[in-house]
Design brief:
The chain is α+β, with helices and mostly antiparallel strands. The chain has helices at about 5-10, 20-40, 45-55, 75-85, 100-115, 120-140, 145, 150-165, 170-185, 195-215, 235, 245-250, 255-260, 275-285, 315-320, 325-330, 350-355, 405-420, 420-430, 440-445; strands at about 60-65, 70, 295-300, 360, 380-385, 390-395. It folds into two domains: about 5-265 and about 415-445, 2-methylcitrate dehydratase PrpD (Orthogonal Bundle); about 270-395, 60s Ribosomal Protein L30, Chain: A, CATH 3.30.1330. Helix content is about 50%, strand content about 5%. Belongs to the PrpD family.
Amino acid sequence: MEITKKLSELVYSSYPLKDKRALEMAKLGVIDYLASSFAARDDEGVQKLLKLIEEEGGYQNVPIIGQNKKANFLQSALINGFLGHALDYDDVHSDVRGHPSTVILPALLSLSSCENVSGERFLSAYVIGVEVMARLGQAIGSDHYIKGWHNTATLGTIAASIACGYLKNVSVETFQKVIGFAATQTGGMRAQFGTETKPLHAGFAARNALQALKLAEINFGGTKSALDGDSGFFALYGEDPAPSALLFSRWGEEWKIYSPGLWFKIYPFCSAAHHAADAAVRLSYKNEFRIEDVTNVKISFPKGGDAALVEQNPQTGEQGRFSVEYVVALALHKKALGLENFKNKCIDSSIKTFLPRIERVYREDVEPSPTAVPKGRFTIVEVEANGATFTERVDLPKGAPGNGLTFEELQEKMSSALQDEEKTVKIVDEIQQLERSQTMGKLLDVL
């Protein structure tokens, strides 16, 4: 089977908004992405990137979220991608094992600023992008992530490029070339987790997706079979050079944006620590022990369940986004799991001295819950104090599909990020009626 061609044909003939569940989840996804981006508007990395593009110069026609500034469509995709992921507050998808919206939406927003695009087509392209990214995640296999690739970047570049091609209704043949230009630009190392470069991967992916589309549109020379064969994307980056069943099975029957669905975060740190966060918060508010009496804390995972949590002895809040030890220590000390404690500044001394009491263990004897998200995951937090052990287990954290955030909770996330109720209502109202908008102008104007 010609994988690249088949994928292009399926995307070209898709009409996802016939499914109202996809439409409603897409609108929630836009709200969450913008809330995450507005929350990061003062991030130091954003200011560095703004300085960089000011030195580059260029035509300014695409808004940069929360900055009251514009840049060209490649520069804006880069910064808006970074913004969405800067605080690790943006959505995740278990099939992706990464963050779809912070790559797909910045690319689509840039393109929508330069084209006459309806809100319906924009939302449809977003659904398509999530669909492709989730199916790529399933098809590429778990070894891709375990080897050290950052799925948000590698899979996101291809998915966002396809979403952009769909937005512009390009031909099947053009889609094939777009995929090729995107695939040859994929990259991103998990070694960068805990640094400013991790969210920059999302910006790179959004920018490169747009570049892929533009190269195809000018008929630049490139392969039309980048996903195929022994030297194609799956052979190079994954386990199976021809994973067609996972990539194409039941296409369009249920859209991945709602099944299994996007996971909207309530905490600004890696989702792999959210189970532990919920468990530790519950333990801390039961008041069954005093923190000064705690002698040991065990955090149990299934094997590989903590792969993204690369920091065990963080020095800053930024590193703490990828440290379950830091998250649990904060929660047990009844400190807020909010933005303030995950900034690039030294962690509190009381937390730092508590970290050595925490250990990770891996349990093969624990039966995963059938409702667990991601599938097969769990986290058990055990606190030993005064000779007693206090335990909480979480399989389905708050925000994950099956325990998701309501529309009202997402609106509150936006309100908290903006600290401007009038603007919050204006943005959310515009998103809620986006499928009826002939252009994207009104939404773009309030970014």
